[in-house]
Inverse folding.
């Protein structure tokens, strides 16, 4: 009942937001028509920019959650349907439940953002609204469809759970993703327009004269779309893993621990798997920014924002280390994994050296004596690690190593029965070695060619790594067919510290999103719309790294506190339904046991 | 002794010490033996490296249940065993004292200027005004590379450099001119610097506008470089650029792959 009340409450709030937003736009446009719009408002204590910053960042984090998790949910539901594995179906449902609550939080923060923009940056908002008004109407319309599709998807879960109705239900999930992605594409056009407005625009161009489509599909729109879609998958996986870790640590029965241990593994697999592809999308975005405007590109990579990349390197190093650590600890519950554990130390050495190289700054922070000893801000020896050749090599080898960890984890309890298993393993090893050799070759050769040629080398390095990953996976799928098991994975037998690695993942991802969002937005510097509309407010100066880091941390903290509340609420509303796999002849098959510490337990036959 | 060497706790300590020696002494003194230039690693980077190594060690020892138990053993024994009370007491005094001393040296006032996080490559504007004439920097090439005799431009560049730049940037272009010690940050050197990563339009802009002509968003920046547009002609600046790349032995960054 509590849940229904919350559902209705959020619905009312959503409707209110939907109706208010267009009116606000109209009001502002009308105000502009009579020339009565003041340029800026003020906000107590943190200022106008701080208020908009927090509202936009927390809204974006929730938006990433409500876009990432449905992708995860339809994937899990599909596995449940087509592999007839009920665990995945329950997993998808459990997350859709959290989604319903998170959705209203997204709407609330979206409304806060709109109200702040209209009251604190009215002239700028008027400018955006006069160019994008049609897309804003579509936006609220899609939001409406998305909300009701979500309600149908969640509340219809148990009603449409069999046969064709189940496929129809899955179709609702796909529709939910389509609406959500369309909403994101529209919002992305507004923010990417701020970075890369049509080239013919000048400060004197009247917004009414701007062609809608050239502003909408601007130079950085598609790269941001691709980058965000992949990042949402990563974020969705990380949130799922963190939720599982939270429930694992609170679990009172072995069954609960087993269920949430498995859920954490699935979330981590998706997060790290998608993370491996994310740098390539980021590279595409960075390249397009450079193409659009060299000044923005240099500010981002070599100028004021360059130190953000060192912080980013440290954080991504944390992600790689935490993701691998979780897998290594997890090997302790897999029979047969002990034959791979001696290799952990070598993989760790590659990762640690990779992090060290990747995070070595080109321009070092040093005092006067240290600078004098180095002869400048560049270290004569370590300076070689500060350039892209070294960094691309390091990150590609880290990706290969992480993939190797996954491979060993996956293969730990399998004994291949096919005749060519040994040859297959040798070919896999050769693929790894060849990819590493290509990465190293271009990494070293990059020091002997010009910068513009060196940039192209990163494509070869990436292709080598991706080819190796695809080749090894294809071989592994065939090698795993008919493989004997060395023993069942002992789900739930994970030390608590492994779960903290999952928390580290989600905190780091969230912080990274805030950090790199600041980098992307901050390279506009004192422009609302790059070289079209100048920020003349008292908050126009680009903040230094310290205040920016504090602001990002505040946003992350607000988001994590609210997400923790949603996790708690998720457990309060409905106890999770766990599925325990039993032998088909077990007398408990088909029974339900509501007595297990408040959890509902389904006993189903093992596949 | 062997027992200690096989124990994960003491092994971790040894790895940590070895890593510290490599970072602080190895990097500074081993490459010169092989004829490769090096220097002591700045404290900020040492801290960064050691933190990474420490995290790596902790991940390794805790990735296996038995190893983790064994690793914690000496700590638990030291904290709980009655016959270790003197060692325990000594450590309970020594560790906070050590932290206190380190903190003191970190925060004590000194006369040295604090480390500065400055932008080495401030973003150039799309267009500048040179002696009242607009010059679009975006996709701008050095016109002298396609006009006249390159050797002549090189000679002009050399003469211009030695008449105007040598006092700070040095006669070996190593940033060690007569005035170099008076500046913080020191004048740029062109030997191992990032000049190869820059287009010539960037170099032109920096010479023409100097430290005083940097855009506001170029901060944090403290450069004593004068704005040479009032002293040198456009061709002289382009000639100096040709001379710098020639002496550094590198080509300027091109806008497109050649």
């Amino acid at each position: 009942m509590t849940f229904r009340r919350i559902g209705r409450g959020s619905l009312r709030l959503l409707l209110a937001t939907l109706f208010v937003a267009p009116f606000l736009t109209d009001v502002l446009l009308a105000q502009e028509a009579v020339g009565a719009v003041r340029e800026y408002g003020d906000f107590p204590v943190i200022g106008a920019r701080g208020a908009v910053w927090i509202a936009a960042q927390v809204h974006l984090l929730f938006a990433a959650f409500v876009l990432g998790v449905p992708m995860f949910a339809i994937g899990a539901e599909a596995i449940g349907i087509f592999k007839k594995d009920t665990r995945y179906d329950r997993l998808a449902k459990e997350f859709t439940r959290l989604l319903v609550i998170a959705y209203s939080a997204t709407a609330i923060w979206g409304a806060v953002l709109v109200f702040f923009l209209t009251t604190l940056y009215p002239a700028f908002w008027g400018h955006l609204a006069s160019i994008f008004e049609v897309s804003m109407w579509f936006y609220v319309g899609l939001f409406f469809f998305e909300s009701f599709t979500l309600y149908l998807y969640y509340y219809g879960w148990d009603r449409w759970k069999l046969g064709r109705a189940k496929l129809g239900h899955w179709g609702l999930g796909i529709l939910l993703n389509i609406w959500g992605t369309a909403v994101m594409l529209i919002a992305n056009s507004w923010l990417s327009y701020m970075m890369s407005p049509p080239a013919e625009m000048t400060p004197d161009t009247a917004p009414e004269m701007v062609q809608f489509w050239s502003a909408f599909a601007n130079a950085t729109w598609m790269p941001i779309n691709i980058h965000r879609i992949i990042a949402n998958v990563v974020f969705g996986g990380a949130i799922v893993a963190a939720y599982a870790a939270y429930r694992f640590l609170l679990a009172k029965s072995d069954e609960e621990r087993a269920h949430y241990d498995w859920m954490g593994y699935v979330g981590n697999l998706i997060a790290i798997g998608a993370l491996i592809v994310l740098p390539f999308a980021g590279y595409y975005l960075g390249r397009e920014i450079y193409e659009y405007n060299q000044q923005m590109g240099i500010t981002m990579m070599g100028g004021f924002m360059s130190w953000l990349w060192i912080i980013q390197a440290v954080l991504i190093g944390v992600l790689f280390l935490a993701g691998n650590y979780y897998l290594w600890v997890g090997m302790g519950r897999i029979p047969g994994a002990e034959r791979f554990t001696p290799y952990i130390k070598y993989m760790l050495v590659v990762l640690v050296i990779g992090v060290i190289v990747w995070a070595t700054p080109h321009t070092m922070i040093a005092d006067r004596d240290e600078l004098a000893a180095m002869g400048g801000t560049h270290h004569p020896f370590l300076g070689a690690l500060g350039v892209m050749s070294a960094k691309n090599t390091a990150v590609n080898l880290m990706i290969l190593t992480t993939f190797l960890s996954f491979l060993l984890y996956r293969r730990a309890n399998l004994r291949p029965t096919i005749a060519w298993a040994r040859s297959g393993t040798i070919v896999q090893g050769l693929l790894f070695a060849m990819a590493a050799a290509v990465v190293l070759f271009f990494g070293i050769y990059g020091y002997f060619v010009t910068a513009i040629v060196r940039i192209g080398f990163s494509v070869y390095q990436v292709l080598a790594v991706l080819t190796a990953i695809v080749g090894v996976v294809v071989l592994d799928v065939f090698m795993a067919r008919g493989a004997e098991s060395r023993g069942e994975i002992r789900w739930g037998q994970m030390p608590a510290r492994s779960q903290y690695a999952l928390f580290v993942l989600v905190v780091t991802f969230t912080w990274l999103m805030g950090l790199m969002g600041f980098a992307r937005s901050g390279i506009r510097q004192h422009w609302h719309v790059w070289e079209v509309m100048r920020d003349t407010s008292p908050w126009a100066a680009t903040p230094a790294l310290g205040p920016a880091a504090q602001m990002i941390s505040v946003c992350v903290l607000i988001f994590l506190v609210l997400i923790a509340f949603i996790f708690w609420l998720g457990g309060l509303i409905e106890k999770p339904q766990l599925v325990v796999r039993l032998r088909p002849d077990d007398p408990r098959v088909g029974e339900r046991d509501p007595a297990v510490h408040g959890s509902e337990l389904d006993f189903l036959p093992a596949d | 002794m062997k027992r200690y060497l096989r124990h994960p706790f003491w092994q971790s300590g040894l790895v940590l010490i070895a890593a510290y020696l490599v970072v602080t002494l190895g990097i500074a003194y081993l490459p010169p033996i092989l004829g490769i230039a090096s220097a002591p690693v700045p404290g900020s980077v040492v801290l960064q490296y050691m933190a990474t190594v420490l995290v790596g060690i902790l991940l390794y020892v805790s990735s296996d249940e038995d190893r983790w138990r064994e690793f914690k053993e000496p700590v638990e024994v030291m904290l709980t065993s009655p016959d270790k009370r003197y060692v325990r007491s000594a450590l309970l005094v020594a560790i906070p004292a050590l932290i206190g001393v380190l903190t003191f040296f970190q925060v004590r006032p000194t006369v040295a200027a604090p480390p500065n996080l400055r932008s080495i490559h401030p973003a150039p504007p799309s267009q500048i005004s040179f002696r009242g004439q607009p010059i679009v920097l975006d996709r701008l090439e050095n016109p002298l590379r396609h006009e006249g005799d390159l050797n002549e431009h090189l000679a002009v560049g050399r003469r211009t450099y030695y008449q105007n730049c040598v006092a700070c940037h040095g006669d070996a272009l190593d940033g060690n001119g007569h005035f170099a010690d008076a500046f913080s940050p020191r004048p740029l050197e062109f030997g191992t610097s990032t000049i190869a990563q820059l287009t010539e339009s960037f170099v032109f802009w920096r010479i023409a506008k100097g430290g005083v002509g940097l855009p506001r968003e170029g901060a944090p920046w403290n450069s004593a470089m004068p704005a040479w547009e009032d002293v040198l002609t456009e061709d002289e600046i382009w000639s100096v650029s040709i001379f710098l790349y020639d002496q550094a032995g590198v080509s300027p960054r091109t806008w497109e792959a050649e």
